[in-house]
Amino acid sequence: MAIAIHDPTLRDGNHAIAHTLSLDDIAAYCRTVDGCGLDVVEVGHGNGLGASSLQLGMARHADREMLETARANLNCTKLGIHAIPGFAKISDIRSAIDAGVDVFRIAAHCTEGDLTQSYIEYARSQDKYVQGVLMMTHMAPAEVLLAQAQRQVSYGANAIVLMDSAGNYDPRDTSEKIGMLAAELDVPVGFHAHNNLGLAIANSVAAAEAGATILDGTMRGFGAGAGNTQLEVLCAVLERYGFETGTDVFALCEAVEALPELPPVQRRTIVGTSNLISGIYGVCAGFEKHVTRAAQDFGVAPRYIYEELSRCNAVAGQEDLIISAAAHLSKTPPETSAQPRKGVTA
Predict the structure, then answer these.
(1) Are 166 and 194 in contact (CB under 8 A)?
(2) Per residue in 98-144, pLDDT tens?
(3) pLDDT, position 344
């Protein structure tokens, strides 16, 4: 089976360095990986179009600058974006089209697919290829995800991608949820993993075996939290399992070695204790830096903040809850169990 490889190194990876990727970084990365057989390189602020803000973190460059830089340095590989309605406006989609973006990922929390309707319909009306994306999908059962995905398909989505935004899945979760969508939908299904529990490669392989034909991976796993599925390893492992990715694994390895000063290569991605706890509690991987900062400011252990965020079912875009949780915990001794509450890992 053929697997399309989607590379969000220059978008999800921007989380890992507080959205400070430079235009030179973007140009160098795009030039270097353009001949490696990747289907899509995704570029932008970690939270996507229009997300640069004091709450989520200011990006070093405007969306349009980053996209035009990438476009000028990609000849073989398509250019993609991530957009979350509320952060992004329809005018941001229009600007991305003008900048030459090929693939539009329109994302929403896993139970709020209806928020993507006008964005998907607009991009499709412009003859663009659109993927409907559901985030934090560990928080909903397979049947709910299917219903939300069917809505996005009815809006015109060409494909559906499930994101394990908290790195909380294990291969059983992946097989069940991807398997149901692949069996019930008439469009391709994709999967985006995070490595907080060290299972990103295993989950990605499980997704492929369950019917996913779009998989995400980032150079050296560069991404939010403990990072994403490591791109070059993913491609090699998929080939071992008999899947066709169309990528040149050795060219990807050469790209890694050719970019030693670039953040995706220079910054080692590991599963830190904070990432592990985030994965256990099913908290958005992009919260890591915000939690670390709040823990220091309020003198509260990150574990208790993650537990409180899990208790509140906090999702991406609710970063303000981190400060309020830390402030509350600094005044009230936390009462925590030895294990996450029942249902957290469902």
Answers:
(1) yes
(2) 999 999 999 999 999 999 999 999 999 999 999 999 999 999 999 99
(3) 44
**Distance (Å, whole) CA 315 – CA 334:** 21
Residue 240 CB partners (closer than 8 Å, separation 6+): none
Instruction: Indicate the DSSP class of residue 341.
Output: P
Residues annotated catalytic, as ranges: 15
In terms of pLDDT, which residue wins out, 192 or 312? Answer: 192
CA distance 80 to 8: 8
Please choose, from the candidates 55, 58, 159, the residue with its C-alpha nearest in 3D space to the C-alpha of residue 104: 159
pTM: 0.90
Which DSSP letter does residue 136 get?
S
pLDDT band at 78 (very low <50, low <70, confident <90, very high): very high
Alpha helix positions (H), the chain? 12-16, 23-33, 63-72, 90-98, 117-125, 142-155, 171-184, 200-210, 231-240, 249-258, 263-266, 273-281, 288-298, 302-311, 320-331
Measured CA to CA, the distance from residue 58 to residue 35 in angstroms comes to: 31
